[in-house]
Amino acid sequence: MARVVILGGGGTLGRALQQHIRSQAEEVEILVWNRRENPLTDFPLVRDRLSALSPDLVFNLAVASESTGQLPAPWEEETESVVINERLPLFLNELSREQGFRLVHTSSVMVFDDSQEGPFSPESVPKAVDGYGAEKRRAEEGVLSTRGSTVVARIGWQIGSDPTANTMRRFVAEQIQQNQGVVRASSQWFPACSRLEETARVLWNLRDSEPGLYQVDSNRNHSFFEILRRLKEEWGDDSWTLEPDDAFTGVQCMLDERLDTRPLFEEL
User: Are strands 212-216 and 151-155 parallel, antiparallel or unpaired?
Assistant: First the structure.
């Protein structure tokens, strides 16, 4: 039986990935990492714990928590965001060679700076210079430079049905509350985004892919306004009004012809 460890398995995408694996693979043991018992900032503990678990496959979906506590040595001068988003993927990549497991690491479309215009191919050079995007970019560069067995999967904004989960629907819920039932969306911005279930499906399929960089994006040609208009119909929610707002423009879509990523909507 294959053993799969999911870092970040308790998060929105992690739960979707667990559900997909269980629906597709009977001969798989899923182990979800408990960050309270095993902090991901404690690298010696991570090494020992993974060695004890002896996984065949590790998914790294972990993101920094909202904790502001002091980090353990040698990270006292770092932020948790830097340690989780940048240092941890490099360490896991090293462990994958040392312990012999396959690693699938999720990156983000945010590696591209707002000044860059898509659609982006896997050959496009990301230029994010600060914050989350820069951390994810440096992690990508470090992992890919080793030419190991790791798969790096860039993902975009996730779409789900739960307004409390970290998805596009929560953005809508927050806008409804802040703007008295009005949600404004640009008809000139084309975001990278996928449904949670589709991202989980593609990530699971990537486990046997050639090492390297992949891009998971279901948006072919829909503006943010059009996406929300069609999702509003799907959700059957008439409690809010959608209005176009063209203050933000650009194409963020990511292309990857090697993947069979399904489009956001069934085309007529």
Answer: parallel
